[in-house]
């Protein structure tokens, strides 16, 4: 799929203008900190930093993505190669702006090399790894958002 990046929603989601149609794209194999969606779904530490990091890499650029499938929200799940041969998915993890997506026992992790990139970013305390106990987004969505939805208090958000 080829088009111009017209919006970056967060650290792992962008909108590509393909012809005259907007296509929502979720970066494959990564999960970035949540930016938040109002009071009921607050954002995580580094959520806005991750969004900015992805925007710095892709905003306004015309790219050709490698897509695998669509998720339950209708987003295309894609690798995002850049013109210089690097890949946005890998750069986000290497810079400490996203996790290698191990949700569901790793069934969403198509790029096994991301685990090493995450380990290196963690060792160098880059980005979200500056936090002594960063909470993976898949746990944040469950522990924070679900707790707030049911009216329970939670110390993580």
Written description of the protein model:
The protein has helices at residues 47-58, 88-94, 103-106, 114-123, 137-149; strands spanning 2-10, 13-18, 21-27, 30-31, 62-64, 66-70, 76-79, 99-100. With 157 residues, it is an alpha+beta fold. The strands form two sheets. Strands 5-1-2-3-7-6 form a six-stranded mixed beta sheet. A two-stranded antiparallel ribbon has the order 4-8. The mean pLDDT is 93.
**Unreliable segments (pLDDT under 50, ≥5 consecutive)?**
none
Using DSSP, what is the number of strands? Answer: 8
- The portion of residues assigned to helices is 25-40%
Mean pLDDT: 93
Query: Based on helices, strands and strand pairing, what is the structural class?
Result: alpha+beta
Globular, elongated, flat, extended or rod-shaped: what is the shape?
A: globular
Give the percentage of residues in beta strands.
Answer: 15-25%
What's the tally of helices?
Answer: 5
Order of helices and strands: EEEEHEEEHEHHH
Largest sheet: 6 strands, mixed
End-to-end separation: 37 Å
Give the strand line-up of the largest sheet: 5-1-2-3-7-6
Radius of gyration: 15 Å
Notable features of this structure?
single chain, 157 residues, alpha+beta, six-stranded mixed β-sheet, 8 strands
Q: What's the short version?
A:
This protein is an alpha+beta fold and about 160 residues long.
């Amino acid at each position: 799929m080829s088009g111009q990046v017209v919006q970056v929603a967060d650290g792992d989601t962008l909108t590509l203008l393909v012809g005259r149609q907007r296509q929502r794209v979720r970066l494959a194999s990564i999960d970035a900190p949540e930016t938040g969606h109002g009071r009921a779904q607050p954002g995580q530490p580094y959520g806005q930093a991750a969004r900015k990091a992805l925007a710095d890499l892709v905003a306004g650029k015309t790219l050709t993505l490698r897509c695998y499938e669509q998720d339950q929200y209708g987003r295309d799940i894609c690798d995002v190669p850049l013109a210089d041969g690097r890949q946005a998915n890998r750069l986000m993890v290497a810079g400490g702006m996203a996790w290698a997506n191990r949700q569901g026992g790793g069934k969403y992790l198509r790029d096994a090399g991301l685990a090493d990139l995450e380990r290196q970013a963690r060792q160098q305390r880059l980005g979200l790894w500056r936090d002594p106990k960063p909470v993976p987004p898949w746990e944040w969505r469950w522990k924070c958002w679900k707790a707030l939805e049911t009216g329970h208090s939670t110390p993580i958000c």
